UniProtKB/TrEMBL annotation:
The keyword Transport does not apply. This is Adenylosuccinate lyase. Catalyzes two reactions in de novo purine nucleotide biosynthesis. Catalyzes the breakdown of 5-aminoimidazole- (N-succinylocarboxamide) ribotide (SAICAR or 2-[5-amino-1-(5-phospho-beta-D-ribosyl)imidazole-4-carboxamido]succinate) to 5-aminoimidazole-4-carboxamide ribotide (AICAR or 5-amino-1-(5-phospho-beta-D-ribosyl)imidazole-4-carboxamide) and fumarate, and of adenylosuccinate (ADS or N(6)-(1,2-dicarboxyethyl)-AMP) to adenosine monophosphate (AMP) and fumarate. Signal peptide: none annotated. It comes from the Bacteria. CDD domains: PurB. Keywords: Lyase, Purine biosynthesis. GO terms for molecular function: N6-(1,2-dicarboxyethyl)AMP AMP-lyase (fumarate-forming) activity. The keyword Lyase applies. The lineage of its organism: Bacteria, Bacillati, Actinomycetota, Actinomycetes, Bifidobacteriales. Its EC number is 4.3.2.2. Residues 17-328 form the Fumarate lyase N-terminal domain. Residues 349-469 form the Adenylosuccinate lyase PurB C-terminal domain. Pathway: Purine metabolism; AMP biosynthesis via de novo pathway; AMP from IMP: step 2/2; Purine metabolism; IMP biosynthesis via de novo pathway; 5-amino-1-(5-phospho-D-ribosyl)imidazole-4-carboxamide from 5-amino-1-(5-phospho-D-ribosyl)imidazole-4-carboxylate: step 2/2.
Amino acid sequence: MNLSEISPAIALTPLDGRYHAQTAALVEYLSEPALNRERMRVEVEWMILLANGFAGNDWKPIVTGVKPLTEQEQAFLRSIPEEFGAQGIARHAAHEAVTHHDVKAVEYYIDDYLDSAEQVLGAPTQLTDLKTLVHFACTSEDINNLSIARCVKNAIEHVWLPGADAIVDLLAQRAEEFKDMPLLSLTHGQPATPTTLGKELAVYVYRLGRQLKHVREQEYLGKINGATGTFGAHLAALPNVDWVAVSREFVENRMGLTWNPLTTQIESHDWQAELFDTISHTNRIMHNLCVDTWMYISRGVFAQVPVKGATGSSTMPHKVNPIRFENAEANFEISCSLLDTLAATLVESRWQRDLTDSTTQRNIGSALGYSVLAHNNLLGGLKSVHPNTQVMDRELDENWEVLGEPIQTAMRAQELAGRSGMERPYEKVKELMRGHSISQADVESFIDSLDFDDETAARLKALTPATYVGLASMLVGYDRP
């Protein structure tokens, strides 16, 4: 049995197979049918604008010989994309099989609907004679750039951002919850100045918050200006129309995008590169979070909640593997590789047009899909871990040498204040603590051996590795940029 002959077709990629349930929401915006549906929306809204005008044009038809469309006629046109389902997908595919051109197939698909307008509306209508208004003065890229921008914008706002926000919100909640929970830091993998678990999580809240702010402020540009961006065909047909104003009205007020006044045949895709770079950067921050959490689990700082019935290892029954974080790492890496390629490729076009962007942009769904899949894995992983305070307390109690930093810094301050016996503070503390196992008694004895003023001596002797966390708890309040 050939697997390729099985019906329905077996998915080639894990996004549409094994992980379909986790990425299906993107189908609504970034699948091929979703793009075709958006193309239909652009086409019919362009028809409505040309027929009915806009405020800056005194609501007069832009195209001579076309009467303003009635509310019923406009509703009929807008129903074309809204009713685009399984039968519509098949009908569009049949047109494309003949045209070998996806946008032309959309045009013919709309023509089919116009043929049925009178029957559907139950009365004579000019729509049956308006096939020539479909795709009027447009090049395919006029339709495509607007459709893709709207598809991506909706996918980001309705799917990607909510998933990223859920991670940041959970991290912020945990940062606040654990802001006073002391944690031994490891710099270069070695014991270092203690912090708190909440403060370390808050670092990620802040880093991610900055990137998500950039995503929310992202411009989505669009154009509708003809084959090489000159409005040449528009002026040849209707020289008295202010086509610049019409274009701007359509892109900004009808499509909800930022108008790009200067393009070649294509909208230059710089906004896409900006967005994909930002998402890739966000992915990498979350990848860093996955790695850190994985290592906290390995170290015992985080304990995992076992899933009843789940298998950690096929041969070692005791294991609870941090697979959610490992899966998230891998999927973030795949997403970044695709996003980086998109960002690098889309900003270049040979002179006024080449078609590499068309092929490349068909992978936007995959690029965001792997990121969304990673979000799901990371969020599930974060929900399944909790601090192991016994391990954290033991680590701190076994590393009194980390108090060498505050002691030598206090010695510097005392020397500058004129206190005798405080010279070479770094070297003295280094001789005591570097490469040695240090106890609380050793620290107190060293403090007593020096001529600290009483207040400083008492303050230093009151310190423990668990209390030497500086302003870590307070800094959690700065986690939202």
